[in-house]
Write a structure and sequence with these properties.
Layout lengths: L8 H6 L5 E3 L1 H8 L3 E10 L3 H6 L6 E3 L7 E9 L4 H7 L4 E10 L4 E10 L2 E8 L11 H13 L11 E14 L5 E13 L5 E4 L2 E8 L5 H8 L11 H7 L9 H7 L2
Length: about 260
């Protein structure tokens, strides 16, 4: 199994961090949670081991071909006016996010659309056309994006106006709660690149933990609360872009930016 936050397998085992594996098919069957409530937390890297020690017995880790930590790269698309960013910044009840996501270990690429209404977010995705560039949307991708946004009642957006704005890269582990009704992702090695201005940002010392559930807080949320962590407003797209472009409105993420990025 791969390393976790710089800890070797032996160290993980000695500290009780070893989790039984779960396959992708089983994880998807038990807790796909495409419509869910997300709670996000920002930790320093040296705070992660203490959190993992709190994981309940029976927690399982997504494992593929013996590895349990995988590289991700997301390219975010927005309008020239940054409508996706600004709707999030203004806390609009209906908002959206369009991206391509690359699974670096398998070479798979998906086109994904996330929509949000109130506390609930929904994600839909399709496999990208063979050969589609990570910074482009071809006709099938644009039709898919338009259909998802229309079904979510998000109007007034010209899909042809979308352009690549930001790229994020990170390593991810996914854990499943013993009850099977909740999962969490643990993102490390965080990095961003602005695709228009060329600014870059790396925060290898930070960890973003995200809990995903259909409703009530998870056992992982409760463990984080016991350790003094509370949910924070952070978006890999919006917070990353705000950190790289200080002129953008950022009140929604000002606390996170002040504490962790500036």
């Amino acid at each position: 199994m791969s390393q976790l936050a710089g800890k070797t397998d032996m160290e993980r085992g000695e500290r009780g961090w070893e989790f039984d594996p779960i396959t992708l098919d089983e994880l998807t069957e038990r807790a796909e949670l495409m419509t869910r409530i997300d709670r996000k937390y920002v930790l320093l890297g040296d705070e992660l081991p203490r959190f993992l020690e709190q994981a309940p017995s029976g927690t399982r880790v997504l494992t593929i071909d013996g590895a349990d930590r995988f590289g991700y790269e997301s390219t975010y698309f927005d309008t020239p006016e940054l409508d996706s960013y600004r709707q999030a910044a203004w806390g609009r009840s209906r908002r959206w996010k369009v991206r391509t996501r690359d699974y670096l270990d398998t070479g798979s690429r998906f086109v994904e659309v996330k929509t949000r209404r109130g506390e609930h977010s929904s994600k839909q995705r399709v496999l990208a056309s063979p050969g589609l560039d990570r910074g482009a949307l071809d006709d099938p991708a644009r039709r898919f994006v338009a259909e998802v946004l229309h079904s979510a009642r998000i109007e007034g957006l010209e899909v042809d106006d979308l352009r690549p704005v930001l790229r994020s890269r990170y390593a991810r582990q996914t854990l499943l709660a013993p009850t099977g009704n909740a999962r969490i992702t643990i993102d490390t090695e965080l990095a961003w690149a602005e695709l228009c201005g060329g600014a870059r940002l790396r925060r290898p010392d930070l960890v973003v933990v995200e809990t995903k559930t259909a409703g009530a807080p998870t056992v992982f949320d409760q463990a984080l609360w016991r350790l003094g962590h509370r949910p924070q407003r952070i978006s890999k797209y919006a917070t990353g872009l705000a950190a790289l472009e200080p002129s953008l409105p950022d009140n929604r993420w000002s606390r996170t930016l002040r504490h962790h990025f500036r």
